[in-house]
Design brief:
Elements: E1 8-11, H1 13-16, H2 22-34, H3 37-40, E2 44-46, H4 73-82, E3 86-92, H5 108-118, E4 122-126, H6 135-148, E5 154-157, E6 176-178, H7 187-196, E7 209-211, H8 233-245, E8 250-252, H9 261-267, H10 270-276, E9 285-287, E10 297-302, E11 307-314, E12 320-325, E13 337-343, E14 349-354, E15 356-361, E16 365-375
Parallel strand pairs: 1-2, 1-8, 2-3, 3-4, 4-5, 5-6, 6-7
Antiparallel strand pairs: 9-10, 10-11, 11-16, 12-15, 13-14, 13-16
């Protein structure tokens, strides 16, 4: 089954935009394997827009850019597969892609056949220039074309959240759907996108996941979506942990060749990834901060094997104490149970907390915990 849990991988757009080429993609494949990203679960390497020639060939087929990819796209796909990774590519539901390259409108079955022949495992399908009356139909048509191609291809619909895509994506054979506009390497962008999707996460689940856009962790203001100096390490923790708690696909967007040790540790954090990849794929419960600090986000999430995830997010510029009273998740203070808690960043066991759980959260940062419900002594 495709997308049993949120897909994980790396995408070229956030850092490189149109400045992609064969050597860069192959180096990224090397780094995904050599630096432990594949082992951590990041299995898809996806080439975004600007990979093709500006014109189709005489038979109407897509053609890889001869300067960027002189050996053709199958050569790159074969290299990626030889590393144990899966290969992804980009197209668009209009006649042109967002950057002005040939889109797949009217060529869906032809393009799906081409993708299958070169070894594509993942298709990111964008939303530019489509006929105004056929957006849902266009995505459904490509889903059918992919199924008719003879190859299993994960379908990532980059619809930007138009037409309440979360309500119909699953019925159109889509495996992950962009529910937001584009992300940028700023804390404001991270907070705005995540806040917008809180009401819609109940639609996300096994086989079809809500995609809040690619990760900007580690970009530090560089690349195609960089803004000034980017985010602090604390804000990147907030970003990554939020995406994990929200079950968003985890598609790395930074240049893996230049990241810091701290960024590497964050992106490969086993505890956070395990929450994101939990097999029950349940969305979080959101609890309002009853101290009146309503900009904070408190998440409580049911996990497999009788465990839970608890996360506290502080988007403000001041350190705060944030408390989860257990009655806000339906646990009577007199029931005799509490939570045995482990910190997902430090691995430290914090013992059993009864009635409530109160933590200090630094400005623009988060705290994430894994919890077991136990009899409290």
């Amino acid at each position: 089954m495709l997308a049993k849990t949120p897909p994980m991988g790396w995408n070229s757009w956030n850092t490189f935009g149109e400045k992609i080429n064969e050597q860069t993609i192959m180096e990224m494949a090397d780094f995904m394997v050599d630096k432990g990203f594949l082992k951590a679960g990041y299995e898809y390497l996806v080439i975004d827009d600007c990979w093709s020639e500006k014109q189709r060939d005489k038979k109407g087929n897509l053609v890889a850019d001869h300067e960027k990819f002189p050996n053709g796209m199958k050569y790159v796909a074969d290299y990626v597969h030889a590393k144990g990774l899966k290969f992804g590519i980009y197209s668009c539901c209009g006649p042109l892609t967002c950057a002005g390259y040939p889109g797949s409108f009217g060529h869906e079955f032809q393009d799906a056949k081409f993708f299958a022949e070169i070894g594509v495992d993942f298709l990111k399908y964008d939303n530019c220039y489509h006929p105004s009356a056929s957006n849902k139909l266009g995505y459904n048509r490509m889903a059918m074309a992919l199924k008719a191609s003879g190859r299993e291809i994960l379908f990532s619909a980059c619809n930007w959240g138009n037409e309440k895509v979360w309500e119909w994506a699953r019925s159109r054979g889509i495996h992950m759907y962009r529910s937001t506009g584009d992300i940028f390497d700023s804390f404001e962008s991270i907070c705005r996108l995540s806040e917008s999707q809180k009401p819609n996460l109940g639609y996300s689940g096994t086989g079809c996941f809500n995609d809040i856009d690619m990760l900007v962790v580690g970009m530090k203001g560089k690349g195609n979506v960089g803004i000034e100096s980017g985010c602090t390490d604390a804000q990147y923790r907030y970003h990554f942990a939020m995406w994990c708690m929200f079950m968003s696909p985890l598609m790395i967007g930074c240049d893996l060749r230049t990241i810091s040790d701290e960024t590497h540790a964050l992106l490969t954090n086993k505890e956070l990834i395990a929450i994101n990849q939990d097999e029950e794929a349940r969305p979080p419960i959101f609890v309002r901060d009853n101290r009146g600090q309503h900009d904070n986000t408190i998440c409580f999430r049911h996990l497999a094997n009788g465990e839970y995830a608890i996360a506290f997010f502080n988007p403000s510029d001041k350190d705060k104490h944030i408390m989860l009273p257990y009655y806000e998740i339906g646990l009577d203070p007199l029931c005799g149970y509490g939570f045995k808690i482990r910190d997902c960043f430090t691995g430290k066991n914090l013992g059993v907390h009864k009635e409530f759980f109160d933590v200090k959260v630094a400005a623009g940062d988060c705290r994430v915990f894994r919890a077991q419900l136990v009899k409290a002594k």
